[in-house]
Design brief:
heterodimer, A: about 550 residues, mainly alpha, Cytochrome C Oxidase, Chain A, about 65% helix, disordered N terminus, B: about 325 residues, alpha+beta, five-stranded mixed beta sheet
Amino acid sequence: MAHAATHDHHDDHHGAPKNFFVRWCMSTNHKDIGTLYLVFSLLMFFIGGSFAMVIRAELFKPGLQLVQPYFFNEMTTMHALVMIFGAVMPAFVGLGNWMIPLMVGAPDMALPRMNNLSFWILPFAFALLLSTLFLPGGGPAGGWTMYPPLSLQGSSTAYVVFAVHLMGISSIMGAINIIATILNMRAPGMDLLKMPVFVWSWLITAFLLIAVMPVLAGAVTMLLTDKYFGTNFFNAAGGGDPVLFQHIFWFFGHPEVYIMILPAFGLVSEIIPTFARKPIFGYKAMVFAIASIAFLSFIVWAHHMFAVGLPLGGEIFFMYATMLIAVPTGVKVFNWVSTMWGGSMTFETPMLFAIAFVILFTIGGFSGLMLALAPADFQYHDTYFVVAHFHYVLVTGAIFAIIAATYYWLPKWTGHMYSETWGKIHFWNSVIWVNVLFFPQHFLGLAGMPRRIPDYNVAFANFNMISSIGGFLFGASQLIFLGVLVHAVWFSKKKAADRVWEGAKGLEWTVPSPAPYHTFDVPPVIHDHELAHGHVED
Amino acid sequence: MTSGGIRPGSTKRVVAACALIALAMFGGVAMANPQPGQLNMTRGASTWSPVPYFLNNVALGVCVVIGILVFGAMFIAMFRFRKSRGAVAEKWSHNTTLEIIWTTIPVVILIVLAYLATGGLRTFSDTTGSQMTVKVTGYQWKWRYDYVDYQGKAIDKVGFMSKLDRESDETRQLNSGLDPNAVKVDGYNTYLINVDEPLVVPVGVKIRFVITAGDVIHSWWVPALGWKMDAIPGIVNAAWTNITEPGVYRGQCAELCGQDHGFMPIVVKALPKEEFEKWLADKEAQAKQPAPAAPAAASTAAAPSTAQIAPDAPVAQGHQG
């Protein structure tokens, strides 16, 4: 049994180093590095969230009450950069680090030292990025999309470009590590088509990362040389083309959007079968759908640019390709519902967040379908309708999945049960206030409120006030999450069983809780019936 | 019939409330500009603007129906198949027939939507046969309008800058102490959506807009016309409209363009043809008034209503290159 394999022999490196610096800064252990990623991501979530609070506070009512417009633009830009590159992506890498070796029966990640490097780059990247707020000239204020010529007017270009390069290097190294681990380190018998869906989703995501992060690096480097070295890539006066940047950026940017949602699909595909006590419906279809979405993500980029004046053929191609994504995405949603149908469900906190994910992500998918229709997008584009859309897929999509996964595996990580009562209080507060926050933004966009504006006509006043109230309360609800985490890690008395959830299947539940410092030093013997997808037919 | 006094009143109130909601969701030309509590897109006031409105409603309808089916099934599952009710998990994990059905039906729906949307795109992209051309140039943070031609005749030197009106501008300063609710024109709140000099155009005429920018990217958007088009330095984009109803239509810059991005509104004043022609003739006469050879630049500051001469080709002055 896997259990036995984790204990005996190898006494020479059994526990974690006692020295704090050695353990956390010099770690090559996938679990410790996973923890580092997750803690870093949580910190960034609160920093990015505080920027969002500034935005919602200024938008509470018409008229400027708190900040100057330029600072408001810095807040919208930094909120996006911090949340995307600091909160969501590192959270997925952290979950991957912690869980992929445990799920495929590997002793660690394939490249442990690179793992350390890819994490420790991040604090420096974000120190650079955040420091611009305190420098003369302020932080980036041209939007996270950094469209030139506007983004070149700021004085923080060099800092931002260097920070983005660092984040990109970190992501690429993380992705290489995950691919190497999954392809080389699976325990004998863990065939590719027996892997958990989460592992599949990360494998595909890692290829997306390797494909597009260099593209972003190229785009921002051209910004840098345009600004400081006299090139004219994006300068019309010098024969360049400002729209070229948008093509390059969105060739990165659209796969990037899926980098932030595919692992979430994987997480939800682990959690729902566990609490429905029924295998995932259509395992192969789920994997194939993720792969199709990943492929399509490369040929839809210009749907972010329907209003730049594309030729008719371009508009039509990108509209059709974008609409196609609805098919595999629909398959995933139908399969989650079918997994629940005929199950024996209980509703612990991870399941609640996973169900909320399916419903609210689907609402974000609906508005995505509407946005795909180019003539309608001429109205929706760059309005609060778009803001509502991508917050539904990223907050109630990606972040809800991350929170669900945190509750799901927290007992495995810490060896303690979290407080189910407070978990549910956190859930209900989150799910109510997030809708109060984002649903009215659909109406604002349809009524004609552009995004990224610090002040607005009084016709938009009532929904903005509702949205802001939802925002403050959603933000405050996340302090409950912090409380639940602190309690579970340091104060909870309730010991977690090895198989924390009754319906949980897969290798990660065969190791003790908390998971020992080293697991699977000897590859586990795989019994198909212990795996979630051990008996895949069809 | 003692209760009769109450009932009609309450019915009337319900009808009024329903009418208000219906108006908020499907308001017509009367609501081409943003209204408090507006829930849906405007139908607009041009020949093309119903296209996005119609597509929006169809797509929303499709999404609502699918949403009811999917979420309905989820909620039934959550109530029927809970462990606390003694549900025992079944073992099946696929069903080929079902999977084929729910892959095919969305494809069919998408084909219908794609057909509708493609038609809208084709009509939108066709700027031929226009009877008037207006050049729109975005600057940080104002718009410039130059009248190029009308009914096949070139227009001489009619063009002007259009920027946020002074009342909004004073009110929008940080902690100005002024009330945005007080900024009104004819009882309609125009805070941040009013300008010193609107773009004046005729109704019932196909107008071609050529849109560009002088510094950074902007986006020219009037919801009542049904579209927005980016104004990009070094690139000239084309779009068209044919306004059906006289009126004042308001919009805003829709592409982040710097600190005052939120403060460069657009106002289009659509006049009946004859009134527009009279306005245009007056403008042309005004443009000719100052001595033709004199360097008019100095006089423009003193006489703001005087038409300014169009600047040279829209070249990006962006950054130090």
